[in-house]
Amino acid sequence: MENRNSRFVNCTVIDALSAEPREVHIAVENGEIAEVSGSALSHNSDIQTIDLRNKYLLPGLWDVHTHIGRGIPDHEARDETTAQRTVRAGENCRRALNLGITSLRAVGEKDFIDVAWKEAFNSGQYIGPNLYTCGWFITTTAGHFLKSGCAVEVDGPTEYIRTIREQIKNGVDFIKLNLTGGVMGPQWDKMPNTFPLQDELKAAFDVCEQRGYKVVAHAGGVDGIKKAISLGAHTLEHGYQFDDEAINMLADSKTYYVPTLSLTHMNRGEAFADSEFQLDWMKEHPIDESYRERAIEAAEMHASGFKKALESGVKIASGSDLDLPYGALFETQMLVKCGMTEHQAITAATLTSAEVCLAENKNGTIEPNKKADFIILNSNPLENISNLQDVCMVVKDGRIVRNDST
User: Fold this and answer.
1) How far is CA 384 from CA 15, 273, 337, in A?
2) From edge to edge, which strands make up the β-sheet containing 235-238?
3) What tens digit of pLDDT does each residue of 119-140 get?
4) What gap in Å lies between CA 49 and CA 43, rounded to an integer?
């Protein structure tokens, strides 16, 4: 068994607890934070000591809107075997962990691949990120996300109820419901359109409430956004089209907002890249011209609605809806580009995302009794959010899983 006991000294910690960095020493025991102290830790020669002078230690990052098996074009995905996608999903998760993304929420995956990997990582047999799952993406016939191979089409209250109970039986953590169209899809799949009927939505939300499962709601258009909020969705995904009433409803609700700004901004084409990092990704992920045009059209109103939500005090988490592993890094950049401070973006990608997954008691900040899931950087991300790419070390459950300083 790898060592899960360490002392990290001379740490410059950046987390949601303070807008300014704080200088502390951290003791880790059995994979959890045992002590955070501004003064010297008790000496123990049997425990390795790691000096992080001139480094920056943050809680591990999150991406709470991802599809862990994605990585090939949509037109190939529907014909891919579950075995092929399962292998790639595990590789994607481990690649994300290597970048300091220590937690993921999968919001649509075929054949419960996400549940299988969650159980594998939780068993300790494989080292991977904390994984929270939704199983299948539940939509209607002629709904959204059909080319992905990860959507299940259901119609009528009875089918919604049965399908949600199947999800529960197979071990998911949340229920993902599709309310509207999106940016990427056929001509009939438009973001303003709401797909489920009112009796279908009521049945779905009723069974989730009865069984104690929170709803992850894909809602791009304003009608679907308002329905999601009024029915008590736990998270609102995307939110491309807001009006003032929808913003006020969201601000007054308990619903978290996961804007996925990267989905529109990173799919506009190479002319919109802000850095070589973004340009390289865009070149490796070419997009159909009709989808690119829709992304360009959507990006401006997406950013405008996000800024209004931010100014209204809406609770915002970080999820990219891009292929792993880089999505979380792009999303934090887009959060800053569209109006957040660097500290707000880091909070969104750590503590608020942990709250979205009901894991704030164990993740999201550097405090005693929380999991020792860290990312250690060479450069200060409060000066430039892109410094989240400048990774020196990654710690998961107290184990050093990446160390570039040796």
Assistant:
1) 15, 17, 11
2) 151-153, 137-139, 175-178, 215-219, 235-238, 256-258
3) 999 999 999 999 999 999 999 9
4) 10
Summarize pLDDT for 322-378 with one digit per residue, the tens. 999 999 999 999 999 999 999 999 999 999 999 999 999 999 999 999 999 999 999
Question: pLDDT digits over 265-289, tens only?
Answer: 998 988 899 999 999 999 998 888 8
First-to-final CA distance of the chain: 21
pLDDT of the residue at 405:
82
CA neighbor of 142 nearest in space, from 154, 157, 134, 156: 154
pLDDT of residue 156 exceeding 70: yes
Q: Mind listing the domains of the chain with CATH numbers?
A: 6-59+364-403 (2.30.40.10), 61-356 (3.20.20.140)
Distance CA 249, CA 225 (A): 9
Q: Which two tokens stand for residue 325?
A: 């592993």
CB 6 within 8 A of CB 49: yes
Q: What phi and psi, each to the nearest 5 degrees, are found at residue 174?
A: -135, 165
Q: Give Cα 338 to chain centroid, integer Å.
A: 18
Closest CA to 127 of 99, 85, 98, 87: 98
Contacts of residue 73, Cβ cutoff 8 Å, sequence gap at least 6: none
- Residue 398 pLDDT grade (very low, low, confident, very high; cuts 50, 70, 90): very high
Residue with tokens 């880089």: 326
Q: Which two tokens stand for residue 11?
A: 């740490």
Torsion of CA 263, 282, 345, 399, to 10 degrees: 110
| Angstrom distance (rounded) from CA 130 to CA 119 | 10
Name the phi and psi angles at 297, rounded to 5. -65, -40
